[in-house]
Amino acid sequence: MGKHSRFNGCLTAIGFCAVAFTSVSCKKEKSAPGPSGWSQVFSTLFNDHALRVKVMPDGKVYFTTLYGKMYVSHDRGKRFVRQAVWGDPYDISDVAWSKEFNFLVGNTGLMGRESDGGSGDDWWQTWKFDDAYDFNSIACLKDYVWICGTEKGTNNSMLLASDNGGSSFVPVYLNNKLLYKTIFITEYNGWLAGDGLLMKSTNRGLFWKPKYQNPDVGFRDITFYDSLNGIAVGFPSAIYRTSNGGESWTMVPSPVSGTLLSVDYTPNGTVWIAGHRYDGKAYKSVLLYSRDMGQTFQAHSYQTNALYSIDFMDDSTGFACGENVMLRTQTGGF
Predict the structure, then answer these.
(1) Cβ(301)–Cβ(36) under 8 Å?
(2) Pairing of β 259-265 and β 271-278
(3) Residue 303 and residue 284: Cα distance in Å, rounded?
(4) 269: alpha, beta or left? (left if phi > 0; alpha if psi -120 to 50)
(5) What's the half-sphere exposure (Cβ side, CA atoms, 13 Å) at 257?
(6) Is residue 169 part of a domain?
(7) CA-to-CA distance for 160 and 171, rounded, in angstroms?
(8) Tally of domains in the chain
(9) Taking a C-beta distance cutoff of 8 angstroms, is the pair 126, 111 a contact?
(10) Of 62, 123, 191, 260, which is most buried, counting CB atoms within 10 Å of its CB?
(11) Among the listed residues 67, 25, 22, the one whose alpha carbon sits nearest the alpha carbon of residue 43
């Protein structure tokens, strides 16, 4: 069970100074979409480990990489522009939009926000919240912000919860649990996913109750289509489905053995999963899909390097990224 204590004080105020910065365009090489429905967005600037791709509510597309790189697209992923991130170049694991700011989080306590209030046209200022923790994911809804992190060298995790747009946070300590992903369906109802565990909160993230436990499964992502239907994925080849709001979870067979790292629903109910597998020589992509709300899955034929993240803008346009690769579909992935 989670313990919580009031965090004394707010985050240190960031004084944004005027900094001259010219955005660097990612020169896109021409690449005709193949019969698979996916095509690569090529650029020399993408020669990196892309950790997370995220479609924002206003239609901008961000993706983050190792070594503190951040890119944004204003045209549905046709062209990406690199943004300046001022501060220590630690890995950026996730980005999300709150009512007040665009936020980023990363390893060694990295937190940051965009200087222009979220327009996607300016630079990011970063700072350290607590370098004892690696922040793995962030969720925002209305004035609420939640950040999930794991404590270095331990089996402990922490959730930071804010009800004022991220101006201050309450830490919720979850000892003897390694948790990597948080999502919130409403401002009251949220989920945490991690090693051997799926946990639910019904009071804005201040108290958590285990809903599924299996020490043989490492969960890395979770998403819900609505209040009842959800999917959680991880390793080894782990796909779990609920149709009763998470009160019970059922394993769904995976057509491919591998590590499943990211899952997303499209508005029409198609489920996509991205991950990777080792073929004896190198790590290759795993791309799965379900046309029946996650009851059964099929392996997509498209092959590339290892994938770490997938996110759809609508039924047609989606993105997946990973090791030196950024993919886009404009045909729903088919």
Answers:
(1) yes
(2) antiparallel
(3) 7
(4) left
(5) 3
(6) yes
(7) 5
(8) 1
(9) yes
(10) 260
(11) 25
With contact defined as beta carbons under 8 Å apart, do 173 and 217 qualify?
no
How many CA atoms are closer than 13 Å to the CA of 54, on its beta-carbon side? 25
Instruction: Tell if the pTM clears 0.85, that is, is over it.
Output: yes
Prior bond of 236 cis (ω within 30°): yes
Per the domain annotation, does 120 fall within a domain?
Answer: yes
Q: Calculate ∠ Cα 234-238-243, nearest 5°.
A: 100
- Positive or negative: CA dihedral 69, 325, 276, 190: positive
Tokens at 212, concatenated: 């599924």
Q: Kindly state the tokens that stand for 220.
A: 């890395």
- Please tell me the distance from the alpha carbon of residue 293 to that of residue 271, in angstroms, as a whole number: 6
CA contacts within 13 A on the Cβ side of 174: 32
Q: 252 phi and psi, to 5 degrees? A: -110, 130
Q: Is the pLDDT of residue 16 over 90?
A: no
SS3 46: helix
Model pLDDT for residues 320-331, shown as the tens digit of each residue: 999 988 999 999
Query: What would the two tokens of residue 38 be?
Result: 């996916």
The domain in which residue 95 lies consists of: 84-176
Could you tell me if residue 260 is inside a domain? no
Are 65 and 47 a contacting pair, CB within 8 Å?
no
Cα separation, 95 vs 147, in Å, equals 10
pLDDT digits (tens, 9 = 90+) for 182-234: 999 999 999 999 999 999 999 999 999 999 999 999 999 999 999 999 999 99
C-alpha–C-alpha distance, residues 147 and 191, integer Å? 12
Alpha helices (H) along the chain: none
The position carrying tokens 């943004």 is 83
3-class DSSP state for residue 299? strand
Does 288 score more than 80 pLDDT? yes
